[in-house]
Write a structure and sequence with these properties.
This protein is about 60% helix and about 10% strand. The protein is mainly alpha-helical. The radius of gyration is 35 Å and the shape is rod-shaped.
Length: about 290
């Protein structure tokens, strides 16, 4: 029946007509007046299984309604997309996640086959973070290998690695104070921050080993190394933080700059305190 109605309404090619060097297709369908006339459509004869004909109105209800011009699909499912603009100073990803979280009750009550999902920049941010996490084990292995070549001791290598999480203290404080969400750019700042912290640890550990090789007692070597390297390490950190200040006014780059600056400031101070304590504790220096 659907094919029969389609041929009557949309038309079926029944032949071709040649006029000179042109080919004109011949299509069989209802006339324009009948296509838009409900009474004419209701009386269309429809053949039944026993060969008899009945009017279309006996087996179908014919009404005039509206049809979507375009039906968008996502993962082969019909989709309705909602777009919005945010105020100046508000991150779109953060507001999207806030709205998505507030719709939890509605999502739980949706019937089968209906879902509410993130899309756009928020979804791209989640995908980008997942792409960052995937190579992390390989990156960690390469960092450990480089540290072993530089420090030549497993204990010193782990000391340098254990100082990296100290930056998270400053990151959390900075993000909370400035009310900045932990997004993709902030995570990039944390990754860059970990490299700076490990670099400072290598400098301090290497200086301790140099002082010990010069004949200083272990405790004196620790104190003298922390005192000697305090100024260059702090000045380097302050210079990096000052370089991030112009980025803090940008809506896009501010999470990276804030996370990096806050984490580096706190981690640099804690590294100069915690790392000597870790060294003295591990080697039982009194």
């Amino acid at each position: 029946m659907s094919l029969h109605l389609q041929s009557l309404l949309s038309g079926t090619k029944s032949g071709e007509y040649y006029e000179g060097n042109q080919t004109i297709p011949v299509t069989f369908r209802l006339g324009d007046n009948e296509q838009h006339n409900l009474s004419a459509l209701s009386s269309l004869p429809i053949q039944t299984g026993n060969g008899s004909y009945v009017p279309l109105s006996q087996i179908a209800t014919i009404t005039i309604t509206q049809e979507d011009g375009i039906i968008w699909h996502r993962n082969m499912m019909p989709t309705i997309s909602i777009h919005a603009n945010v105020k100046a100073g508000v991150l779109g990803n953060a507001k999207t996640k806030e709205v998505y979280k507030s719709l939890q009750d509605i999502r739980d009550s949706l019937p089968t086959g209906y879902t509410i999902e993130l899309d756009g920049a928020a979804e791209n941010s989640v995908t980008a973070v997942q792409n960052l996490v995937t190579p992390m084990p390989i990156m960690l292995f390469v960092i450990m290998t480089i540290l072993m070549f530089q420090l030549k001791r497993i204990a010193l290598m782990f000391m340098a690695l254990l100082t990296a999480p100290l930056g998270l203290i400053g990151v959390v404080l900075a993000l909370n104070i400035t009310r900045t969400p932990l997004g993709f750019m902030a995570i990039l700042g944390i990754i860059a921050l970990s490299g700076m912290i490990i670099r400072n640890s290598i400098i301090l550990l290497d200086q301790i080993e140099i002082h010990k090789a010069e004949g200083q007692k272990p405790l004196e070597a620790i104190i003298n190394s922390a005192t000697l390297r305090f100024r260059p390490i702090m000045l380097t950190a302050i210079a990096a933080i000052l370089g991030m200040i112009p980025l803090m006014g940008s809506v896009f780059w501010s999470p990276l700059a804030i996370a990096f600056s806050g984490g580096l400031l706190v981690a640099t101070i804690l590294t100069l305190i915690v790392l000597p304590v870790m060294y003295a504790t591990w080697y039982k220096i009194k």
